[in-house]
């Protein structure tokens, strides 16, 4: 959601205090729960641990991220895979092809010896 120009961007003040006077390499991972905080230009180069409700996802801030929010880079939902009979068949075919490729590579190395 956008924020009024009159109010300005919301940047969590404690985050700025945590990185104040530190170099990006020496700061390590800065943990935060402030997913709604905007990424300021002063944060470029630092690594933040953004909480997703269960774990801290490490986010290395780059110049392209300035103006976005931390929550955009730490997803709260984990995609496992689409299920169903067709998906299982596709996975079985891929596994068979991988096994066949490994066997042919093994035979090729034995033939060279």
Second CATH tier, the architecture of the largest domain: 2-Layer Sandwich
Mean pLDDT across every amino acid position:
89
The helix/strand class is alpha+beta
Evaluate the radius of gyration: 23 Å
- Gross morphology: elongated
Strand residue content: 5-15%
Largest sheet properties: 3 strands, mixed
State the strand order across the main sheet: 1-2-3
Q: Mind telling me the CATH superfamily name of the largest domain?
A: Ribosomal protein S19/S15
Order of helices and strands: HHEEEH
- In DSSP terms (H or I, runs of 4 or more residues), the helix count works out at 3
State the helical fraction.
25-40%
End-to-end C-alpha gap: 65 Å
- By CATH, the topology of the largest domain is 30s Ribosomal Protein S19, Chain A
Low-confidence sequence ranges: none
- CATH class of the largest domain reads Alpha Beta
What does this structure look like?
This protein has about 110 residues and is of the alpha+beta class. The protein is built from three helices and three strands. It has a three-stranded mixed beta sheet with strand order 1-2-3, covered by helices on one side. Strand 2 and strand 3 (about 55-60) form a beta hairpin. The mean pLDDT is about 90.
How would you summarize what this structure contains?
Helix content is 35%, strand content 12%.
Topology:
Elements: H1 13-19, H2 24-27, E1 29-32, E2 47-51, E3 56-60, H3 85-112
Parallel strand pairs: 1-2
Antiparallel strand pairs: 2-3
């Amino acid at each position: 959601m956008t924020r009024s120009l009159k109010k300005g961007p919301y940047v969590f003040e404690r985050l700025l205090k945590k990185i104040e006077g530190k170099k990006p390499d020496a700061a390590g991972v800065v943990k935060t729960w402030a997913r709604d905080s905007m990424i300021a230009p002063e944060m470029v180069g630092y690594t933040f641990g953004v909480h997703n409700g269960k774990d801290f996802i490490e986010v290395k801030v780059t110049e392209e991220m300035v103006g976005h929010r931390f929550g955009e880079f730490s997803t709260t939902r984990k995609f496992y895979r689409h299920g169903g009979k067709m998906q299982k068949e596709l996975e079985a075919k891929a596994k068979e092809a991988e096994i066949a490729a490994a066997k042919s590579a093994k035979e090729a190395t034995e033939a060279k010896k």
